[in-house]
Amino acid sequence: MKKSRLLSFLFVILFLFVSCGKEKIEKYEDSQFLFGTYIKIIVYDSNKELAENSIKKAFEEIQRIDLKFNSKSEGSLIYNLNSSNEKSLILDEEGQEIFSKIREAYEISGHKYDITIAPLLELWGFTEEGMEQAQLKLPTKEKIEYIKRYVDFGKVKFENNKMSFESPVKEIDTGSFLKGYAIEKAKNLLKKEGIKSAFVTAISSLDSIGGKTEGKPWKIGLQNPEDPSQIIGIVDLKDKAMGISGDYQTYVEIDGKMYHHILDKETGYPVEDKKMVAVICDNAFDADVYSTTFFLMPIDKVLEYVDNKDGIEVLIVDKDMKIIKSKNFNFQEVKK
């Protein structure tokens, strides 16, 4: 009898010890305006100091990349390259990593993904000044044909660690990939700090560490391209990233018609056969690059590539609002 009571007492002590040692998981979040959009970081952890310091360091990493490479950030390496008469740049290890992926996407797309597209974007009014104008004019076919000669990533040359432009190429635009790269690096920093549950989002680019509390996945609503206030479905993410390109994200209005910013460099006009592309893979850099790359490619070529490659999933909404998925893309469709 005494032995039984002693055993019960020990169980009670052990239970109290375990209960006291188990710290409560809390949600910590912050957002900052970088890359022309609001970036939010959410962390679930029991250690407030660790969570808050990790978020702070992650934002510092995003800002570092913004200031170093963003073609829109005055003083960055790419801004200076675009602005200088000397069209060459020595790339460090990080720069080589970034542009290796860009060259790969250029080849995968059949040369349709082209980061020298900036002159065409400027012609259509996709600049800070142009986006603020009340009245924009439709570019003439003659002007488009003239500007197209400045768009050719094939004239961006790489020799060892040197990147240079051949005439008439003048500039490159980092808008289609750098935000995803920054988000990936922020996620990696959070992991290095010991964070086990986190979500980094810039709306069209997002990355995750683990799931939410109790191992539940992060649930992402895919916007309806024809009515972004509604969703077409929900995707579960866990230790995965997503990149989204859509005709509803950035556009100009000319004579009452919307023209989006994903331009076909061969025609000089916005791509017409798709409304949205969502890509899931292991990191936000790849997801960001692939979402634009696939938007520019024929749909059958996209599916052929993805279905024969591990680690990539894609969902496409075509011009008729038909949803087309790779064989491994799972999402919960929202019926109207």
Can you put this structure into words, describing what you see?
The strands form four sheets. This protein has an eight-stranded antiparallel beta sheet with strand order 1-2-6-7-10-13-14-15. The protein has a three-stranded antiparallel beta sheet with strand order 3-5-4, with no helix packed on it. It is 36% helix and 26% strand. The relative contact order is 0.12. The protein contains ten helices and 16 strands. The N terminus is likely disordered. The protein has 336 residues and is an alpha+beta fold. It is globular. Helix 2 runs antiparallel to helix 8 and helix 8 runs antiparallel to helix 9.
Task: Chart the SSEs and their pairings.
Elements: H1 2-21, E1 26-34, E2 37-45, H2 48-69, H3 77-83, E3 88-90, H4 93-108, H5 118-124, H6 128-132, H7 141-148, E4 156-159, E5 162-165, H8 178-192, E6 198-201, E7 205-209, E8 218-224, E9 227-237, E10 241-246, E11 251-254, E12 257-260, E13 274-281, H9 284-296, H10 299-307, E14 313-318, E15 323-325, E16 332-333
Antiparallel strand pairs: 1-2, 2-6, 3-5, 4-5, 6-7, 7-10, 8-9, 9-16, 10-13, 11-12, 13-14, 14-15
Helix pairs in contact: 2-8, 4-9, 8-9
Primary descriptors:
single chain, 336 residues, eight-stranded antiparallel sheet, three-stranded antiparallel sheet, 10 helices, disordered N terminus
What is this entry, summarized?
This protein is an alpha+beta fold and 336 residues long.
Terminal residue distance: 67 Å
Annotation, overall tally of beta strands: 16
pLDDT averaged over residues: 91
Tell me what portion of residues adopts beta-strand conformation: 25-35%
